[in-house]
Structures are given as C-alpha cells and as structure tokens.
Amino acid sequence: MNRRFIKISLSILLSTTINVSQAQKLTSYVDPFIGTAGHGHTFPGATLPFGMVQLSPDTGTEGWDWCSGYHSSDSSIIGFSHTHLSGTGGADYGDILLMPTIGAWKLNPGSKNNPSEGYRSRFKHETELASPGYYSVFLEDYKIKAELTATTRVGFHRYTFPKSPVSNIVIDLKHGISDEVRESFIQINGNDEVVGLRRSKGWADDQYVYFIIKFSKPFKKFAVADGQDLVVDGRKMEGKEVKGIFRFTTKEGEEILTKVAISSVSIEGARKNLEAELPGWDFEQIKTAADKTWEKQLQKIKINSPVDSLDSAKVDQKKIFYTALYHCFIHPNVYNDVDGQYRGMDKQIHKTTGNHYTVFSLWDTFRALHPLFTIIDPEKNNEIIQSLLDDYLQSGHLPIWELASNETGTMIGYHSVPVISDMILKGLATFDTGLAYEAMKKSAMDDDRGLKYYKLNGFIPRELENNAVSKQLEYAYDDWCIAQVAQKLGKQNDYEYFLTRALTYKNVFDPAVGFMRGRNVYGQWNPNFNPSQVSILGSGDFTEGNSWQYSFFAPQDINGMIELYGGNEKFTAKLDSLYNQKPLNDNEHALDVTGLIGQYAQGNEPSHHVAYLYSFAGQPWKTQKLVNKIATELYTANRDGLCGNEDCGQMSAWYVFSALGFYPVNPASGQYTIGTPLFESVTINPDTEKAFTINATNGSEDQHYIQSASLNNNPYAKGFISHSDIIKGGLLAFNLSSTPNKEWAVAAENRPVQTIVLPADAKSERLLFMPYEASGKTLFFGKKSVKLKTETPDAKIYYTLDGTTPTTASKLYTRPIDINTSETVNAVAIINKDIKSEVSTLNFTRAVIKNPKAKFPKITTDVTPSETYPNTVDVLLNATFGTYNFRDGNWFASNNDSYTLTIELEKPMWIKTLKMRFMQNTGSWIFLPKTINFQASVDGKTYQDLGTMENEVPFAQQEIDIKEFWKQCSTKEKIKFIKVKIENIGNLPGWHPGAGNHPWIFSDELVIEY
C-alpha cells in the first residue's frame, strides 16, 4: 500500500471519526427554536444551565405570545436583552437591551409595521442560528451580524459591522417586557465602560438589575437621554426612559465585542461577576465553553440508540427529547453574585455559601420537573430548596410563584410543599428538615387564599373565593405531603390532622353528576354547573381549566377517588369519556387550555398525570396508547412543537419522563407509574456506578404496547417502579408490540396504588352546613318572610335577632321569620345538641329593588350593552349579589372611558345609604374604577354631590377582590333621582399582558337602603 493511499485513508477515517463524534454530541440535537411559535413562549437566545443571564433577541414586548419577548411570527428585532422567562404565561424581564445600528441616532425602537422609524431591524429566520449557549442573526436593515453567548452571569455580544463611519450600539433601559421602570440610571466611565441600574415594577413588583458593560473598542462619540432629548457627551443620566447611544467607526467585517454583567445587588457585584467569569475577549472560547457546559448537563440522560441521519423521524425524536431536557435546565436561575451576595425577599442584601435561585413556577414544576431533579441532580434540588427556605426566613412564607425575589402570588396551592417533601421522603435532604417542616406547616395554616374556610368548613365556598374547587383539590394534595413528613418526623397529631385534610377533596365531588363541583358557603352545589366551562385564574371554580380536567386530581388518594366514581369499570369509562368529548370550551382569555384530546389538555398542567390513571384501575394498555399518542403527536421538532406554554420546564419534564417510560403521578410518593418507552435504549446517570438503563425491543411508532418486562433480568409484572430501584442502578427492559397485552400489570397486586387509610383512632370530620335563606335574597322592599334551610338533613336550626351567638337555648326555627326593617339574623345548625355548624350571619337590608313587571325604579345608562358580557343595567337592582365568577349573570360590564347610571324612584323617599360593589380581577382585564361618584336629586335637575371615592391602579399580575363603596345620603329632603358616575382607569397598564387595551369595569349590586 503506498503512503499516499495510507494518508488518504487515514484522512477519510479521521474525518469520519470527527463527523461521528460531532453527530453524537448531544447539544447538536437541541433546537432552541422549538416552542418559539404557537403558545410555547420560549426564547432562542444564549444561556447556561440555571444561568442568571438569558441573552436573547426581543421581537415584541406586549401581548400573550410575547411573554418571553420573542415570537417566530415576527420579522423584526428590537434588540438583545439579558433576562428572559422560558415558557411562562405571564410576562416580565427583558432587562438591559442592546442593539447595534448603522446611521443616524434613534432613541425609539420603532414599530413592527415600520421598523425604519426606530432602531429596530428586519431579519429573516433563515439567517438565525441557535444552539445551547449561542444565538446569531443577520440584521437586514444594518447588514450587521449579531452573535450572542453567555457565562452564568455575563452576556457576551459579537457584532460584525459593515464599513461605516456611523456604527452605533444603543442601550435602552426603558425597554422591558410588559413592565414599567421605577428608576434607572446610566453612567459612562472613560471611553469603553458603561454602568447603571434598571429597577422595574411589573409581574415582579420590585426588581433590581445593576449592570456593567464593557466594549472591546473605544467609542468615539456618545450621548444619553431620558425621553426624547439627547445630551451629547453627557456622562450620566437618571430617569424612567434612560438610553445611551455609542458611536464607532468600523471597517468592513470589523467585530465589536460587548460584555454585559448583571447583579441584583450592586454595580460592584456586577463588576465582580464580570471579572470572575469573563475577564478576556475570546468569543469563540466562551461559546465553546458554553457548549461543553450544556453537553455535560445533557449527558445526565443518554439515548444509546444510534440514529441514522437518513431516518428523519428518529432524528426528530431525539431532537425533541434533548430540547426538552435543555428546557428543563433553564429555570430556576442563579440569583447570587460570585461573592454569594443577593437581594432577598425582604429587599435586604444576604449572602449564601452555595447558590441562591429565583424563578419558581411551582404550580407547574412540582409535578415533574423537581421529581426529575431528584433523579438526575439531587444536589441542585437541595440548593433550590434551600433557596425556598431562605425565602421563607426573609418573607415569612414559602414561595408560591417567586420572581426576582418578589412573591407574585400567581397560581394556587402551596406547592413549595411537595418539592420539599419529596426530598425529605426520599432521604435526599441536606437542608434543615425541622425548619422545612415549620415552613410547610405555616403555609397550610394561613387564613388567606381560601384557607380560612377550608380549615373551618372542610371546603372552600365558591362565592367567597375564586377558583374554589381547584384550590380545594390542590390544598388537599399538599396536605398529604405535609402529613407524610409529619409521620417521618414523629409528629403523630399533625400526621392525623393533615391526613384528614388530604381527604377533603371528596367534599367537592358531587356523586349526582360525577364531577368535582363548586358549592357555596351553605353547601349548595353550583346550580349552573357545566363541566366543560373553562375558567381562569381569578374567575369561576377552576384554575385555567374546567371540571373535566380537575375531576381527576387527587394524586394522594387515587384508589379512593376511583371508589368515588363507583369502582374501576366506571372510573375507566369516565376516563374514556374525557378523551372522547368534543374539545370545545368557553375559554375567554384562558389560552393555556390547549393541546386538546377531547377535554384532556396536555397544554396545561392539571391534565399531565391523567393518562397514567388507567394503570391504577387495571387498564395499563390504555395508558400506553395515550402516552404514546401525546408524546408523538403533541410534541414536534418544529418551532410550534409545544402544544402549550413550556412553563419553566414542566411541559418538557413531562416529555422526558414519558419518553423514558414512566411518570410521577404523585410527585412526592417515590413511585413512578409505567407508561411506555419511546427509545430503544436510554441510560439515566450514565458513566456512574448507579447508571439505570431502560431498553425496549420491537419498539416503533405503532408498537408501543408492553408485552412483558424485566428488572435486572428478572421478570417484572408491576405497572410501577420505585425511586429506590432507579437510583441504585440497573436495567429495566420492555418487550413491545402493536397489540395490547391485557394481562401485564393488570392483577391487583401489580397495579400502582395510592390510597389514604386513616389511623383507627383518627377523628373523621363530618360536613355540617350553615343555615341559609331559602330564596338567597338578602335585599327586600317593604317586608320579608325569612325562610331558613340547611343542607344537613338531620340538623335543627336555632337563631337570634339581637346580635348574639345562637345556641340550643335560643329560638328554634319552626316557621318563617317576618321582618319589615333592615335586620341581622344569626343562625346555626346543630346535631345532637353539641355538634354545631359555623354561625350564619344574614344581613337583610330594606332597599329599593327592581321588580321586572314594575316601571319603577327606572335605571338607565349611557352604556351600550356589551356583546361580550351582555347583561343589562337592570342586574344592578335585581337583589342578587354577583360572585367571584364574573360570568354568573349578575354583573354589569362596561369598558367605556366613563359612564353614568341614572335611577329614578317611583316617588321621593328618605334614603339612608347608597352602596355599590365592584370586582377587580386583573388577570381577566377587570379593574376597579378610577373614581366612583354618588349624587342625589329631588327633581332630576339639581343634584347634591354625596362624595367621590378613588382607587389606585394595581401593579399585580393577579389581583382579585370584590369591594363595596358607599356614601351616606345626608340630604335634607326626600330624593327621587340618583346618579352614579364611574370613571375607568384608561388603558391597561404596561405590565399587563393586554397592555394598551381598555379594561373592563364590573359592577353589582347598587343598594339603595331606605
């Protein structure tokens, strides 16, 4: 063989080896563009695992599909900012925006319709590239190539300019994603450094981002502005619209590098971060380091099956999997500087010895993301939980939805609890379990968020608390978690108490209709129940879903829930009907409810465990079929490849678990329900002594039914696997087929089990309902016959009229109570003389009300009835109070700038007070009026002003309340006419997803007390 041939052969072999090696890099299978279209809400930019910096392009800052700042429907880029949220349903961040330009200085970004009016630039998706830790795009308007990479706390930009004497870099501190600037400043040091602060108010009420920016090339000219007036050569500027513009002269193809370090603490903290993580200027080195960091992170789960590049379907499967795993490692984010300092929940500066994290979307991530961490990164999960406990010490509460050391209060439950409990119950906790238990118990024993009623009554009344059924169900699950930890810590009384509370999910199950259903404070079921009716956070009985989706949520007592439905056959029939329903819903702004199969919604978290429930009822083959269908049809390798919000890793964690072949139906149980594996061979924690491999033979898109299984080469007939089996390592092998095996994992002893058995001596609480007035009306005209009832059949009712608490010594209710003045009736339901309900306090008010058949009182308005909310103004005088469900038919809605109500009474009357109720539900675009003014008149011409009440515009993503405003009618004459003037706040504020649109005003009831 001649040497030339040997060299050629060696060259070919080396080239082949390099290509194979490159193809096997797991980062090559990650596509950060997945989820950037549709409603995925992901961003494509550069970040490291759990990185403080998420450096990414912003194409829009307002609206539902721009929560991450980027959407693939856009064709222009505003610039590149350094903080972003991945897949959230709420918008914020987008801090410290940079944009390279050519030509005249421009202060404003311009619009999507006309980018040329500002510094925005058009771009083509064909010129975009993205991989873990890297993003690039060609800015068409300026012929600039922009490239981004990052370290944990520093964003690194590389801009390749054309030849130009007027090349610029814009820094815009006004820019943010649906937030408002509280204060900001920019300061220019020398000719290559900029420092400053952007402090904002949005979803995060008070967020600090200090920064330092270094340029690789000195700028020749600079200007600063606060608003529209440039100050050339100005070294410092403070305000709420602060911007800086820096000019360079560039040669063709010249690169200008820019480093941006951030900190929640101080400029000095940002400087330390920069010096520690990015002292040099080698962009390629940082890009390569970022890729290596991601490669190491992704190696925690390795797909062993070789993939032929010609088999596009398998390549896509692998791409979907590793992109999902990539998305699992974006949040939560490191929040401390390299010296350990960070700004805490109390806004004070604290110091940690490890890492402190932010961005806790716990309503989402408790379900699968944190359980995934317990398998592949328990050390990280311990750091995360220590952050939760530090937040508790600083604020007095465990986080619900924490963002930049702010409690947003978004979503429901106290889902720090299952995350913490899971680590304790699995024996993985390195944090203070005593402190953790104290914090968990504190969350469960609060009085807000409906817990007061939940503790007292065993259920949450739907008219007193929004999303009452969803809250009931999720509180019950969290309580089960607390009970398990209490038992582990030897706290027997707490164990029994919280275990009993964990069974209260049954209190909202109505066997008459076979659904979880809302009931009012008196125990009456929602009379207008529709299981397909979707409600969102802040309205209705359910959170971002309906009864179909929530009626299967009792992961702490699945077997008990099955019995509620009448046993296995009836339960599986109910599950069948879930998937076979028409996927119709009245979802208004509930855009999360997506990815529908019947009424099942993969695009939102309450459904995520449901496909696995068949296995508990002895039909695991249906679980296998559905899980495969969801994984292969609702997750794709396209930009719209997520069927709903990514939600900080939860959507992806569902896929990762399900592709492996099992899922944590009860996230804190340590048991995983088997579905069906997607790959021929996958290893969890490879290259360790405790690697765990899942193999599947005969698997294909059509062959997903399990015929048999083995664990460590021993036959395995169970439909579940324990956490302990996985972490000690081994081999789980499946034999798959195109037809179901209706014997495997079907026997009762082989099914997953999740049930609650109370200790023999535990007290079982009985529901005892308060008395109520049969008509439901507490407003009356003239006189009223009060008829009392209770939903507890064998209870007697005792009442008082003097304000005292009724007992068995009080009057026994035997016949209606006649009243002709405003009166307060206190009533109690009692069984066996000593078992008492809560006391009902029924305030009856003598007021002017509208009789549909009578001409008076006449109420008119200058508002045209809305097609969206079509109720007429007459509902304001129908003697029925609206509930937190703003669609209950008792609210009058308007989105006018202002409107007036005029009431004409039948004859002049002495009026004592005027009262009017308004709802605030910011998530549903419903805000309190800016002002409410009451006026009274004898003749309808001359009015006496009774007073004006004012409200401030809230700064909260979800603020929900019903407030009553009133004034005494201190006129010297009887009145016949009343006016109420109501002024709207203007447009929705900048932090709101619907910013720029008009908010709604919801009013009810107008009480004219005489």
Topology:
Layout: H1 3-24, E1 46-47, E2 54-58, E3 76-77, E4 79-81, E5 97-102, E6 121-122, E7 129-131, E8 134-139, E9 144-150, E10 154-161, E11 164-172, E12 180-189, E13 193-201, E14 207-215, E15 221-226, E16 230-232, E17 236-239, E18 242-250, E19 254-263, H2 267-277, H3 283-298, E20 301-303, H4 312-328, E21 333-334, E22 341-343, E23 349-351, E24 357-358, E25 360-361, H5 362-365, H6 369-376, H7 378-395, E26 401-403, E27 406-407, H8 416-425, H9 433-444, H10 451-457, H11 468-488, H12 492-502, E28 509-510, E29 515-516, H13 547-550, H14 558-564, H15 568-580, E30 596-597, E31 600-601, H16 620-633, H17 650-660, E32 662-663, E33 671-674, E34 681-684, E35 692-697, E36 705-711, E37 714-715, E38 720-722, H18 723-727, E39 730-737, E40 772-773, E41 779-780, E42 784-786, E43 788-789, E44 796-800, E45 811-812, E46 817-819, E47 823-831, E48 835-836, E49 840-846, E50 858-861, E51 892-894, E52 898-909, E53 913-921, E54 931-937, E55 943-950, E56 960-968, E57 975-983, E58 1001-1009
Parallel strand pairs: 35-39, 41-49
Antiparallel strand pairs: 1-2, 2-4, 3-6, 5-11, 7-8, 8-9, 9-10, 10-19, 11-18, 12-13, 12-17, 13-14, 14-19, 15-16, 15-18, 20-34, 21-24, 22-23, 25-26, 26-27, 28-29, 30-31, 32-33, 33-38, 34-35, 36-37, 36-39, 40-43, 42-46, 44-45, 44-47, 47-48, 47-49, 50-52, 51-58, 52-57, 53-56, 53-58, 54-55, 54-57
Helix pairs in contact: 4-17, 6-7, 7-8, 8-9, 8-11, 9-11, 11-12
Cofactor: Ca(2+)
Enzyme class: hydrolase
InterPro entries: 6-hairpin_glycosidase_sf, Galactose-bd-like_sf, GH-type_carb-bd, GH29D-like_dom, GH92_a_mannosidase_put, GH92_N, Glyco_hydro_92, PNGase
